[in-house]
Amino acid sequence: MEDEKIVSLFLSRSEEAIALTSEKYGKKLQHFSCGIVDDEESAKECVNDVYLLAWNSIPPHRPFSYFYAFLKKIARQVSLDLVRKQGRQKRKGELVALSAELETVLPHVEDVENTFDGKMLGEAINRFLKTVPEDRRNVFVRRYWYTDSVSLIAKRYRMSEGTVKSQLFRTRNELKEYLKKEGFGI
User: Fold this and answer.
1) Residues 55 and 83 reside in one and the same domain
2) Are 34 and 43 in contact (CB under 8 A)?
3) Do residues 78 and 117 share a domain?
């Protein structure tokens, strides 16, 4: 079934929307969530939470043309929240390390709230990523969106871990400069 029809079912408050969403995207969402929480059962719980949050978010949101991205964004947040809540030491350490890597690049939260809204920052990052060669963009997104480890990225793209680290370092620095030019205080 087309996403537009599923969203319409959400808007009309039909419970069939959840069943169709599960059928179409359930496995993908679970795989994505499992990559973050590192546990199949926890990933299933996260996906169920995604359905509830989607139910509560549609309306006011009407994600006709970006329904899967909408669900995936919810899944990412729910999964990260669960990791924080459970305090899993290994995974928590990896997420803290990822945060530390990007802290030197992204504006401080207070600066964003005072000068720009988070949406504008996201749009600026997306514009930047469109300027980066596809292979480097893929590495960056796998690391900071999907939270893949450096070794997993290296294996996936058949490159050395050193190459991955180098690409991430360069891309972070380029992002920092780009955001400065866009007027974001770093």
Assistant:
1) yes
2) yes
3) no
Same-domain check for residues 41 and 80: yes
Is residue 186 domain-resident?
A: no
Pairwise CA distance, residues 8 & 170, whole Å? 43
Asked whether the beta carbons of 69 and 54 are under 8 A apart, the reply is no
**R_g (Cα) of the chain, nearest Å:** 18
Which helix (H) or strand (E) segment holds residue 7: the answer is helix 3-11
CATH number of domain containing 146: 1.10.10.10
| CA distance linking residue 169 with residue 33, whole number of Å | 26
Q: Mean pLDDT of successive 10-residue segments in the chain (186 residues)?
A: 90 93 94 86 93 90 86 88 70 55 58 50 86 94 84 93 94 90 74
